[in-house]
Amino acid sequence: MKEFAYRRATQVRDALTAVAENAGARYLAGGTNLVDLMKGGVEAPTRLVDIRQLQLDGVRDAPDGGLVIGATTTNSDAAAHPEVRRRFPALTQAILAGASGQLRNMATVGGNLLQRTRCGYFADLSQPCNKRVPGSGCSALAGVHHNHAVLGRSEHCVATHPSDMAVALAAFDAVVHYETLDGAGEIPLSRFYLPVGERPDLETALPPGALITAVALPGSAVNPRSRYRKVRERASYAFATVSVAAALDICDGVVRDVRIALGGVASRPWRAHSAEAVLRHTRPTTDRFRIAAEAELDAAEPLPGNGYKVTLARNLIGAVLGELAGTENDR
Ligand SMILES: Cc1cc2nc3c(=O)[nH]c(=O)nc-3n(C[C@H](O)[C@H](O)[C@H](O)COP(=O)(O)OP(=O)(O)OC[C@H]3O[C@@H](n4cnc5c(N)ncnc54)[C@H](O)[C@@H]3O)c2cc1C
Ligand code: SF4
């Protein structure tokens, strides 16, 4: 690991200044991703600014009936919060589907959003990778890519985003709040992650040096009838092969509102707008769920080694919606 300076910030402005004055500085939250990448030489910050002493943790009510989750709230605390569990159960399920108890006790909400891809070539300094070294090439295209993207990928990068939590946040239309030395700002999660395009190293719409302060879940998205399901290669301690976060609002036997987001299939949480459009104002039947899932997966462009994800995503959307509607045994 390369030598680096360490500074602990106790005020948001101090943290912003400590990062702004050193081009190689990075925020350190739980360190569960950043420190791993530093050990492997993938990241080499010259200064770490520890933000765990900032008063940015905790979950509070928002005036619109939603919730605001502070950026340094641990994944464990966010998942266990009674109002997160009651108003946004899919978020609790998504967080608990990730990593391990020990990691979730350290990992924070802000750090989870900004964790880097688990593409093996990204972590392997001997291999070309456009995300790590722009312009060097993408080893996964002709290499091992069975767990890579099938939606919204580009010829420059086919990696997936690894966060479970972000998939549920995408389904609930979360908004990321941040601070810079020029003032505060917010970005809807739908625009937080940049489309992969020609510069896969540019991952988010955050301004340079911005500190994430919180994630807000709008009151309009509150739905106790929501669910997160994750398919993975082993029962725990594994990233998603495909995951689905969904919420269903049925009134008088008709779908009044529906929210679906997919994980493990794209460079960012994938909001399934096409599937949602097929379902709104229709009767929630198994057939309708299948048609909706097919509408979403029409856009898929699998690689030679990951076509199975298209079938898996299609089936998982149907299964989760069936569970939420109580139609899973209708087949
Ligand atoms: C073995 C293992 C298994 C895992 N499995 C899963 C899984 O199945 N699902 C899943 O979703 N995750 C999984 N994870 C990832 C884990 O959830 C992340 O490592 C963690 O959420 C990152 O949070 P952190 O606070 O430790 O971030 P850090 O490692 O401290 O930081 C990560 C990045 O975010 C930046 N950052 C952190 N906070 C802020 C902020 N407030 N503002 C601006 N920048 C910030 C840092 O500078 C750094 O670039 C796993 C990790 C490990 C090690
Ligand atoms: S898929 Fe992306 S992260 Fe993986 S090797 Fe290609 S450019 Fe790098």
3D architecture notes:
This protein is of the alpha+beta class and 331 residues long. Among the domains are: 5-50, Uridine Diphospho-n-acetylenolpyruvylglucosamine Reductase, domain 2 (2-Layer Sandwich); 225-325, CO dehydrogenase flavoprotein, C-terminal domain (Enolase-like, domain 1, 2-Layer Sandwich). 29% of the residues lie in helices and 20% in strands. The protein contains twelve helices and twelve strands. The strands form three sheets. A five-stranded antiparallel β-sheet has the order 4-5-8-6-7. Helix 5 (89-96) runs antiparallel to helix 8 (165-171). The structure holds flavin-adenine dinucleotide and iron/sulfur cluster. The site of iron/sulfur cluster has 14 residues, from loops. Iron/sulfur cluster binds at residues 117, 119, 121-122, 129-131, 138-140, 157-159, 200. This is Xanthine dehydrogenase family protein subunit M. InterPro entries: CO_DH_flav_C, CO_DH_flav_C_dom_sf, Diverse_Substr_Oxidored, FAD-bd_PCMH, FAD-bd_PCMH-like_sf, FAD-bd_PCMH_sub1, FAD-bd_PCMH_sub2, Mopterin_DH_FAD-bd.
